[in-house]
Amino acid sequence: MPQTTTLTSPEIWASLDEKVQAGDEDRWLSSRYAPKPERRALIALYAFAYELARVRLVVTEPGLGAIRFQWWREALEEIEKGETPRAHDVVGPLAEMLAEKRYRIDALKRLVDQFEDAFEDADRTQQPEALLTATAARVLADAHGWGQHIATLAPHVAAMRRGESVGYGPVVPRAPKAIRPAVAHLRLRRLYGKQSEAGNLSRRLCVMRGVMSGKV
């Protein structure tokens, strides 16, 4: 069972929160509506995904990329064995959340594998948007009945975020209230298709409405 022997300081959590806000503000906005313990789990997960996604931005050689992804596999394996987490601003919080059983370590390992596949093929469409969103939803509810909608909607919204002309996308039923802090950001597709860039207030209001109504 994963354990952590070091306390994660409020300063580390604040820094991690800032990292996610800067790197993935869409998900960060949704996470504001989760209770604090679950919000921390979401932030640690999103920071982990951000580290994996940005490999393509910091290295171009396959060998160097492989080294970075293997580093994360080994970090997760050490946590799984109950060893002291590596000194890294994301690893410590991940270990803490795994110790609290906020998510399964096998899901994190699959995130590493799928991000590496996308990196090797230089194909961002392979990035595990559905798996990431499903893992976040599970932080909030083990069973919610919205898994298939996440599987179809999350990759579509990711394509819109990349600027691809894919249209509005699938119509889905209202998201269950329990998981809205993990999926409300998907409602931003209502703004992605517009020619003018949405301002901060519009984006925040859009996510807030997603949380309140479940319409994404």
Keywords:
disordered N terminus; mainly alpha; single chain; 216 residues; 12 helices
Description:
The protein is mainly alpha-helical. Helix 1 crosses helix 3 and helix 8 packs across helix 9. The N terminus is likely disordered.
User: Rough shape?
Assistant: globular
Helix-and-strand structural type: mainly alpha
Largest sheet: none
**Helix and strand run:** HHHHHHHHHHHH
Average pLDDT metric: 94
Q: Helical percent range?
A: 55-70%
Distance between the termini: 36 Å
How many helices? The count is 12
CA-atom Rg in angstroms: 17 Å
Question: Which secondary structure elements does this structure contain, and how are they paired or packed?
Answer:
Blueprint: H1 10-23, H2 25-31, H3 36-53, H4 55-58, H5 62-80, H6 91-99, H7 105-120, H8 129-140, H9 147-161, H10 180-183, H11 189-192, H12 200-213
Kindly summarize this structure in a few lines.
This protein is mainly alpha-helical and 216 residues long.
